[in-house]
Amino acid sequence: MGLVPYFVEALKADDCPILQLEAAWALTNVSAGTCDDTKVVIENGALPLLVEFTTKQSVDLKEQALWAIGNIAAEKSFLKALVEKGALEHVLCVLENERESLRLTRISIWALANFCRYGTDAIRISSDYIPRIASMLATLLKHVDRQVLNDAAWAVASFTGSEWASQTKEFLVQNGVLRILAKIIISSDRPTTHYPALKSCAQILAGPESYAAEFLSVDGILQKLKKLLTSKTNRKTMSNILWLLQNIVANKFRTCSQIFSSGIIPRLIELIVYGPYEIRTEAGSVLNNMFYISDLPLKGLDILVGQDAVRALCAMLTWENKKAVTDALNALDKVLNESGKNSAQKYYHLSNIDETYCIDVRLKKEKKRVRVHHQGSNLKRHNAIAQRVINAGGKHTLLLLADNEDRTIKQISISILGQYFEMREFYLPYSSDEDSDPVEMFDENGDQLDDSSSDLSVGAKDEMALCDDITACKIWEAANGCGSLE
């Protein structure tokens, strides 16, 4: 209807502040609409007048102007115009000089959070603004007002995103933001505060190892994270906790060793085995990172095994996510290999079954529980871990993966079975379909064996096929704990 120009004209009525306030209010609501609605407000010259209102004596006019600026800042395409007209400068000035007014502080930090949403490329600010914003956010995170605190946490979450340069995280850490966020997580019981605080920490902890060390130095933070993981935490909050842990354990063991003794690992195992798909995938990433810590000692590996990490890895082998399956296979291969070393024998869980029970296949109907017998000394040292894999159903899954369509998964599975379960060759059942691929044989390294039977007579081929069928049955029965075939 062409009313916006009249609202802009009313902003110029300096002799009638009430009219200016109502006009600013109308423009605030229009700018909260679509991108095209906001564009009309800017094209009609409202922006310079709204920025000027942030310097007025009237708190009502300042608040309304900041509200309109915050709405405009929510649109990425207008950030450049806002910065050029001095809107960001005036928002920071209000936060620095008007702290006695809670109303102005609330609306200003919300507007600043919108400025931080899209990164340096969108906002196109000079590097001088970054330390100012970091210092201001560090101050507001200590504010007693809950609304100010939440909006400041959201501003940090945006300010630490991938759209911003790494120096923003550095300035935030220098201003103590990481420690402040950790204390907020510990002291607060509100999910609305936890979510942005945890997201901010997770993004910051993707930086240098010193950041993780500083975060873990805050007393009580790991206990709080464990409590949040084991309580009725919403899925988004739990996802951020797992993201945070994943970034921490991506560092060296000397930095993240506290996590191994914090009681968090058993909860990770539960999430991997029983959690919803999105959560168990993220929990699996944390566990895989633990197995591949660059300086992980045998002591750390023993702790993982003792807290049932092998069962979690076997559960991951059944997932449809190829990357997760591959990572779990590599982790299993690592723990099986390390447990076979002489130096591993002094660690209890790497060399003993530790009162593990399994159900004998022949006694399933009677549901009798029997103790797993320790193998004789003539068997390999890694049998303790191999037995854990068998008890968790991992060997059966490995046999299935040995016929997986993915070549990497197939080769690793065959290698593990051949090296640690004394199964040197595998017979892949021949399909009766005439158009199917021929039977392939693989050695312990996953390499295809030559088919030397191509020149045999028909009778010899039939006899070889029968022998192969018997071999396949023996392998299956050995895998399932049945008696030997006569």
User: How many strands in all?
Assistant: 4
**Sheet bearing the most strands, described?**
2 strands, antiparallel
Structural class: mainly alpha
- Fraction of residues in β-strands: under 5%
Estimated radius of gyration: 32 Å
Would you state the CATH class of the domain at 1-125? Mainly Alpha
Q: Helix amount, in percent?
A: 55-70%
**CATH architecture group name of the domain at 1-125:** Alpha Horseshoe
Short description:
With 486 residues, the protein is mainly alpha-helical.
Architecture overview:
This protein is mainly α and 486 residues long. It has a domain at 1-125: Leucine-rich Repeat Variant (Alpha Horseshoe), CATH 1.25.10.10. Helices cover 63% and strands 2% of the residues. It has 28 helices and four strands. The chain has helices at residues 4-10, 17-31, 35-43, 46-53, 59-73, 79-84, 87-97, 102-115, 120-123, 129-140, 146-159, 166-174, 177-187, 191-204, 209-216, 221-230, 235-248, 253-260, 264-274, 277-291, 298-306, 309-316, 322-339, 348-351, 383-391, 394-401, 407-420, 458-479; strands at residues 357-358, 370-371, 426-427, 441-442. The strands form two sheets. Strands 1-2 form a two-stranded antiparallel sheet. A two-stranded antiparallel ribbon has the order 3-4. Helix 2 runs parallel beside helix 5 (59-73) and helix 17 (235-248) runs parallel beside helix 20 (277-291). The chain is elongated, with a radius of gyration of 32 Å. It starts with a helix and ends in a 7-residue tail after the last helix. Mean pLDDT is 82; it is low at 355-365, 367-381 and 426-467.
Helix/strand layout:
Blueprint: H1 4-10, H2 17-31, H3 35-43, H4 46-53, H5 59-73, H6 79-84, H7 87-97, H8 102-115, H9 120-123, H10 129-140, H11 146-159, H12 166-174, H13 177-187, H14 191-204, H15 209-216, H16 221-230, H17 235-248, H18 253-260, H19 264-274, H20 277-291, H21 298-306, H22 309-316, H23 322-339, H24 348-351, E1 357-358, E2 370-371, H25 383-391, H26 394-401, H27 407-420, E3 426-427, E4 441-442, H28 458-479
Antiparallel strand pairs: 1-2, 3-4
Helix pairs in contact: 1-2, 2-5, 4-5, 5-8, 7-8, 8-11, 10-11, 10-12, 11-14, 13-14, 14-17, 17-20, 19-20, 19-22, 20-23, 22-23, 23-27, 26-27
